[in-house]
Amino acid sequence: MHIPDGILPITISAAGYATSGAATWYSLRKIGQKEDAQASIPKASLLTAVFFVASWIHIPVPPTSVHLVLNGLLGAVLGYYAFPAILIGLFFQAVMFQHGGLTTLGVNATMMGVPALLAFFVFRLRRVVGKDRRWGVGVFGFLAGATGLGVAALIAWGLLVATIPAHLDAEAERASIYALTLAHMPLIVLEGIFTALVALFLHRVKPELLKD
Amino acid sequence: MGSALSISRLTFSYPDHPNVLQGIDLQVMLGERVGLIGPNGAGKTTLFLLACGVLKPKAGRISLFGEPVQPGDFHPEIGMVFQHPDDQLFCPSVWDDVAFGPQNLGLSKAEVASRVETALSLTGALELASRPPHHLSGGEKRMVSIAGVLAMCPRLIIYDEPSANLDIRSRRRLISFLQTSKETILIASHDLELVLEVCDRVILLDEGRVVADGEPREKMGDVELMEAHGLERPHSLAYHAEPHHGYSGKVVNV
Amino acid sequence: MIDGLDRYACLDSSLHRWDPRCKFVGLIALMFAFSFVQDLRLLPAMLAVTSGLYAASRMPLAFLLTRLRTPAVFVVVVATLLPFISGTTVIARIGPLILRQEGTVAMALIVVKFISILTISLVLFGTAPFLTTIKALQALGLPPILGDMTLLAYRYLYEIGNDLETMERAMGLRGFRARRFSSHTLDVLASLAGTMLVRSYEQSERVYKAMTLRGYGHSPRPRAQFHRMVCIRAHFRDWAGLAGVFLVAASFVAMEIWLRGLGG
């Protein structure tokens, strides 16, 4: 899902950096308003590393296996730290594994990070049914996971459609983009389920990890 | 001889674990080398965190070098070497990690550099300066974490299980280092032979209370006392038909 | 795993000696200049500049090729598909396949730009220890929270990666095979992820205690918290290098605009 260097026109790359900058500024401001912001930095940092590593876990989906994106789970657990965490995670991936790109860092961060923040808000909604209700954690965990990947896929779709090179057969291109997006549907459900399962695990073992 | 650490009627509970410490009275004088022994869950680490001001007591008073300890304040005169070096080595390079403390003391760059070099030399870790912590062996990590604390020039150093997971050579290097250190030290350890070789006083802690306090060979040689509190008499203090342990407990050639 | 990046950071070349702040700004500008290019005629110059910079770094070619191996998949897909599916102007027919001009041009642009930008980024991050580059970013104005988070995350990445490996091995030794897609598999893998989160969370609490015990949050100079750049003055040659690279980047942009104006 990471967009590599070299494809996107520079206007989009620049816009991506602008939106990332804004989202980072917003997140840092919200973080600064919390009273124990400093104590949360080691937590957020180590959890960023965990999410980076956790995305290497293979989920067998015959005939192959997939790596989950987990940006929804990251949003649910890290809250406002989710955007900086994703920015840093993508930076590591681009620099260490040449996965994604540096000119496209802003675009990729916006594509994964904004849905992560949305997933956080979705997960927070569980207080409507009572924060500590198990089924609330499960249902809203599912919704958060699905939101994370779903909105990211939507943004990716929008980007691809907007940057179709003029001489590409527009119909065929649009059709293949629709097909790709549809192929993501089962993955979106899988992310939702996995996020719910992990949220339930945390709720049982260490509920303060899910505290807002 | 002045008092380094003075604890009186200290009580502490965790939310899920009441009465971790029950009315502890303890005095450590300047220059003493005190070993703290006891089973897991006795409250040793909790006691250390209270002495450093990281935790707030439920009741009781703690003073460091005559000044009361304010929980949450920064007390550079006391340093603590954690049980797991990975919890303490959080900077990406050895040099940076050892410099962390002096930088927070507001020292000039030159002074920071001088402190770092001195600390690394004392612990024999000078050539590791540019390495990242995850490239170090267990023994190297241990000495670097000690250097990080030494660089702040504390007057009292607390060691929490310093020889855990060390190989024989690293353990021997650690013991030699501790034997020659000039600070007042307080060591919690399951490694009873280390305590015998390094400390001149031992305190036995069990279920949040001080059960014994005195000369190491005498207290740790008391089989009934040790076994009553989940410990064993160190091998070197056992009766031997052919004595082969030197005074400090180390095996000598027969 | 992640180690490979720093491997050649200890070599000696003009790029290794370049002030990391100037290097960062200059090479990023160059990457963006390359990204701006849409004209085929600038590609040979792009390749020339890229190979020149890589050669100047004295890093071995094998290193570049290893690093390009993973993203090469993307390149191969693009190279194979685009010339045959994109565009209307026919260049050649190979059996049933029709080679189209627009697609071939697009492919050439994407492939060359991709490889060039990747190579420049390898030069940027391979010629200095990762830590030094992050400090350069901090010196350039990276917000302290981001800087602290990056360094802490980088520090613990290895341990956590090793933990994952160890746990997977332990699971395997007790008979778990993640082969079937089933609710049991998902449960186990979710527990694995959850366990890693909990362990790191608990470790982070201990790390925070260790940090506060050595003064984190109590620094008399609040901005000088964590990892301040050891003061290196940039010399004239560092600025000259920066100016040179800016000039090259600007030339690419100017040429691109001019060629577009010509209707090329």
Word description of this protein:
The complex is a heterotrimer of chains A (212), B (254) and C (264). Chain A is mostly helical and 212 residues long. Chain A has a single domain, classed as Arp2/3 complex 21 kDa subunit ARPC3 (Orthogonal Bundle), CATH 1.10.1760. Helix content of chain A is 71%, strand content 4%. Chain A has seven helices and two strands, in the order H-H-E-E-H-H-H-H-H. A two-stranded antiparallel ribbon of chain A has the order 1-2. In chain A, strand 1 and strand 2 form a beta hairpin. In chain A, helix 2 (37-54) packs across helix 4. Chain A starts with 9 loop residues before the first helix and ends in a 7-residue tail after the last helix. The mean pLDDT of chain A is 89. Chain B has a domain at 1-77 and 191-254: Rossmann fold. Chain B is 32% helix and 25% strand. Chain B has a six-stranded mixed beta sheet with strand order 6-7-8-3-9-10, with helices on both faces. The radius of gyration of chain B is 19 Å and the shape is globular. The N and C termini of chain B lie far apart (40 Å). In chain B, 45% of the residues are buried. In chain C, strand 1 (90-94) and strand 2 (97-100) form a beta hairpin. Chain C folds into two domains: 3-136 and 232-261, no CATH class; 142-213, no CATH class. In chain C, helix 3 packs parallel to helix 6 (101-126). In chain C, 69% of the residues lie in helices and 3% in strands. Mean pLDDT of chain C is 86; it is low at 222-227. The two termini of chain C are 45 Å apart. Chains in contact: A-C, B-C. Chains A and C meet through helix 1, helix 2, strand 1, helix 4 and helix 7 of A and helix 2, helix 6, helix 8 and helix 9 of C.
* Strands in their spatial order, largest beta sheet of chain C: 1-2
The stretches of 5 or more residues of chain B where confidence is low (pLDDT under 50) are none
Low-confidence stretches of chain C: 222-227
How many domain modules of chain C?
2
Write the H/E string of chain C, N to C: HHHHHEEHHHHH
Topology, number of strands of chain C: 2
Lateral arrangement of strands in the main beta sheet of chain B: 6-7-8-3-9-10
What is the CATH homology-level superfamily of the domain at 1-77 and 191-254 in chain B? P-loop containing nucleotide triphosphate hydrolases
